[in-house]
Design the sequence.
C-alpha cells in the first residue's frame, strides 16, 4: 500500500514539474504555484500520517482488549477446572482411608502445579498478544515513513530557486 502511495506521489511530483516547465508563467507565478501544491501535498501527507497513527492505535487497543478478554477467559476456565479438580479431590479423599493421606498431599501438589502451569500459559499468551500489537504499530509506522520522505523531498526541491 505504501509503495503504491509513494509511486503515486512521485508521479504527481514529476507531472507537476513537467507542467511548470511547459506553462507560460513567470518565475514568480510558477514558484508560488509550486509552493501551494507542495503545501497541499504536505497537508495531505500529514493527514494520511495522522490517520495511520489513529488506525494503528485503534488496532493496538483492539488487540490489547482482545488479549485481555482471552486472558480473562483462560483464567476463568482455569479457575473453574481447578475448582472442579479440587472438589473431586476432596470427594475422593473423604472416601479413602486415613492411611492414604500421603496420596492426598500428592494430589494437592499436582493440582497446585496444574494451576501454576495454567497461570504461566495465560501470562505467555498475554505477552504474545502485546508483541503482536507492537509489530502492527511498527508496520504501520514503516508504511507511512516512505510517503513522508517523498513529500519532504518534493518540498525541498520546490523550495530550491529555479534558474530563469
Sequence:
Amino acid at each position: 500500500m505504501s509503495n503504491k502511495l509513494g509511486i503515486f506521489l512521485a508521479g504527481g511530483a514529476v507531472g507537476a514539474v513537467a507542467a511548470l516547465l511547459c506553462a507560460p508563467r513567470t518565475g514568480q507565478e510558477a514558484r508560488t504555484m509550486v509552493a501551494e501544491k507542495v503545501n497541499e501535498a504536505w497537508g495531505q501527507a500529514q493527514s494520511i500520517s495522522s490517520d495511520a497513527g489513529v488506525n494503528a492505535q485503534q488496532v493496538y487497543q483492539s488487540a490489547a482488549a482482545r488479549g485481555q478478554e482471552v486472558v480473562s477467559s483462560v483464567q476463568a476456565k482455569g479457575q473453574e477446572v481447578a475448582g472442579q479438580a479440587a472438589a473431586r479431590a476432596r470427594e475422593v479423599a473423604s472416601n479413602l482411608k486415613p492411611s492414604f493421606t500421603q496420596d492426598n498431599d500428592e494430589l494437592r501438589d499436582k493440582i497446585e502445579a496444574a494451576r501454576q502451569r495454567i497461570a504461566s500459559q495465560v501470562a505467555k499468551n498475554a505477552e504474545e498478544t502485546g508483541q503482536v500489537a507492537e509489530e502492527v504499530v511498527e508496520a504501520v509506522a514503516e508504511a507511512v515513513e516512505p510517503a513522508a520522505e517523498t513529500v519532504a523531498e518534493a518540498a525541498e526541491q520546490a523550495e530550491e530557486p529555479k534558474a530563469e
The chain has a mean pLDDT of 80. Residues 38 and 156 are 9 Å apart (CA to CA). Helices lie at 2-22, 27-95, 101-159.
